[in-house]
């Protein structure tokens, strides 16, 4: 933020800092100019003022032109012995400050940087032997003069590395924060899609069954009152299950501080008999065939297989003019193939979501006329893809509609078959009307 005068708080702070640094360097330079070899002091001579003014005048440029500032202050320091002044670390203070700024600002190779600093240190002490004989005290003083710019350069280099390290840490923290936010948004989107699929599956399934049971009750209301009561009781049971599943699914949307509700386990193929029984009550006969040795499934694959069977049979109930369907579960070494087909009797209608690329051609959709497009087939494909499998759907060459999904399985272990007494070569068919099995029936 800037003020009307054109200078902001930062510019005022920079100006004050530069003024303080320049004033300090000027005072040190003058202090060095009053010292003599015999450790006595006198008023600063004109030469001391000259050296202080020339060397300190370039210090404000040390950040924009660090090499030029270092060269100017070094040249000023080289004039100290010829002007009759005592060469001390104090009188070359501007050169020391410029060396620190050079190492802090310039981005060059370390060898080049070290060479410049060593050259500056040597140039500061180079004129001394030509004008006076050196004693031990003089040598130690010259060594201190040469060492100060080198030490200042090392400090400047370390400060620059420290700042670069802190900047890198801040950048990594910023990127990590952005990554966490992006990952959180991605997970929220995935969870939203998953919940949408769950809601679609349970609503489409249960409401379709309730509609079929209500239709049967209305048809038998006058002719068969007893069967009407049975259908109405089944309708009440179906809607009760629908409400329970809806409550459990919507419970996923609760906040962390909400009252916890008892979580029910996700359905799987072990719940297939109950699912088929619900379709039996709606008037759909479903036969099930198992090929191969059944074994435990990962939770995600188990839920996916269950939902695909549920949605496919729901589509048969809604869109196919037939009273029977076939489910086949083929257990292979590395995959489970789930197939759901109807017998093709009557006028078959394709679910609205099957339109578009990959949809069966030549299909009629009278049952879906006037309705918004559904998402049953889309949801089944998404579920299969999410666990690493794939799903296809279309008309069966022999008639009817076929949904087939291949889902990956973990490596086979020594596990018992799901149904007692089953063997890899045995086929078993379950009639959803009677609940009894018939061996040898093929879908």
Care to describe what's here?
It is a single chain. With 443 residues, this protein is an alpha+beta fold. It has two domains: 12-175, no CATH class; 265-439, Heat Shock Protein 90 (2-Layer Sandwich). 52% of the residues lie in helices and 10% in strands. It has helices at 9-33, 46-57, 66-78, 93-105, 110-125, 136-220, 225-250, 272-281, 299-319, 376-386, and strands at 285-291, 324-331, 335-342, 390-395, 401-408, 428-430, 437-439. Residues 1-6, 258-262, 346-373 and 414-443 have low confidence and may be disordered.
Number of strands: 7
Radius of gyration: 44 Å
Average of the residue pLDDT scores = 75
Give the CATH superfamily of the largest domain: Histidine kinase-like ATPase, C-terminal domain
Please report the number of helical segments: 10
Q: Which series of helices and strands comes N to C? A: HHHHHHHHEHEEHEEEE
Q: What structural class do the secondary elements suggest?
A: alpha+beta
What strand line-up does the widest sheet have?
Answer: 1-2-3-5-4
Number of domains: 2
Just give the CATH class of the largest domain.
Alpha Beta
Largest sheet: 5 strands, mixed
Based on the structure given, which CATH architecture of the largest domain is correct?
Answer: 2-Layer Sandwich
Terminal Cα span? 77 Å
CATH topology of the largest domain, by name, is Heat Shock Protein 90
Gross geometry:
rod-shaped
DSSP helix fraction: 40-55%
List low-confidence stretches.
1-6, 258-262, 346-373, 414-443
Beta content? 5-15%
